[in-house]
């Protein structure tokens, strides 16, 4: 988000080596503190789009379904699609109830809903619901931030049998469910490892074993975290609205 200028420059440099913009799917999102007011939400997305400097972005997401705020923010962001600044809109961390509230008034359907989904936190109900609505489920934290899922004996056993790593098994698990996946790594070898997930599959028995790793306690804990986060989270840039790049640099 704060690195839009750098991301845009890196992508333009990559395109200059013979790649086309159509090979990319560029997403940005509006942080909760900028969702407080529809004009601030649009301003925030416009800063990202301008600073990326890649033309229209493919997707602008509402970061959290903030009660009494998210619908107005989404409706304001629809204007970006109408003006050709974004090709589509997305939602993030939306439950089925939030989506239903939104769809009572939205004129543009969200293309994607992104939420945490991995074998230790399988949100089956949400996955099934959004897939059935035709909204792409995008799993974030698919590796549980490098957490216990990678040390699970079940995951490790399946990985050993498939001659793959625990991370690859976790990523494949989401793909087998028809979900898109967004992982993060700062380690080049891991980035290469994490994209080698299209040359194997998981049996229905292994999928069932992985599905069974999610416990009611974990789901309950995640629900508490979700309730807290949807009511606002401090922005990475500190208090106030999202700064433009030059304002951020001047403040350093
Ligand atoms: N919309 C939302 O509310 C939301 C919330 C959270 C995250 N996200 C997005 O989702 C994306 C991914 O989520 P995330 O970064 O939170 O979690 P993640 O992708 O599950 O985990 C990233 C962590 O896993 C490690 N890792 C990556 N590949 C690995 C491998 N093959 N073996 C072992 N460890 C590995 C990385 O370490 P190294 O970097 O050291 O390799 C990093 O610490 C991010 O782009 C994030 O912005 C969105």
From TrEMBL:
Q: Which PROSITE patterns match?
A: ALDOKETO_REDUCTASE_2 (PS00062)
Bias (Basic and acidic residues): 243-252
Any Pfam family hit: Aldo_ket_red
Per UniProt, the keywords (alphabetical) are:
NADP, Oxidoreductase
Which residues of the sequence carry a binding annotation for substrate? 63
| Annotated site, Lowers pKa of active site Tyr, chain positions | 29
Query: Residue limits of the NADP-dependent oxidoreductase domain?
Result: 7-213
* Stretches the record annotates as Disordered: 221-252
Q: Which GO terms describe its molecular function?
A: oxidoreductase activity, acting on the CH-OH group of donors, NAD or NADP as acceptor
Q: Which CDD domains match?
A: AKR_AKR1-5-like
Write out the similarity annotation. Belongs to the aldo/keto reductase family.
Q: What is this protein called?
A: NADP-dependent oxidoreductase domain-containing protein
Identify the species of origin. Cladocopium goreaui
């Amino acid at each position: 988000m704060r690195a839009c200028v750098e991301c845009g420059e890196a992508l333009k440099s990559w395109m200059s080596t013979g790649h086309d913009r159509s090979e990319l799917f560029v997403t940005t999102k509006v942080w909760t503190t900028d969702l407080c007011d529809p004009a601030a939400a649009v301003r925030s997305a416009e800063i990202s789009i301008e600073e990326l400097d890649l033309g229209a972005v493919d997707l602008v997401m509402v970061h959290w379904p903030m009660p009494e705020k998210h619908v107005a923010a989404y409706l304001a962001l629809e204007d970006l699609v109408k003006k050709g600044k974004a090709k589509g809109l997305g939602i993030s961390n939306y439950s089925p109830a939030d989506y239903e509230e939104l769809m009572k008034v939205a004129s543009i359907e969200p293309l994607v809903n992104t939420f945490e989904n991995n074998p230790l936190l399988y949100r089956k109900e949400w996955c099934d619901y959004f897939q059935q609505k035709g909204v792409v489920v995008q799993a974030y934290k698919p590796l549980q931030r490098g957490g216990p899922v990678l040390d699970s004996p079940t995951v490790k056993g399946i990985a050993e049998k498939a001659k793959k790593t625990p991370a690859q098994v976790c990523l494949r698990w989401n793909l087998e469910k028809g979900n898109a996946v967004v992982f993060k790594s700062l380690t080049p070898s891991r980035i290469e490892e994490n994209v080698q997930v299209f040359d194997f599959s998981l049996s229905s028995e292994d999928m069932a074993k992985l599905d069974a790793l999610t416990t009611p306690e974990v789901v309950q804990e995640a629900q508490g975290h979700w309730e807290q986060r949807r009511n606002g989270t401090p922005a990475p840039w500190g208090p106030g609205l999202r700064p433009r790049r030059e304002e951020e640099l001047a403040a350093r």
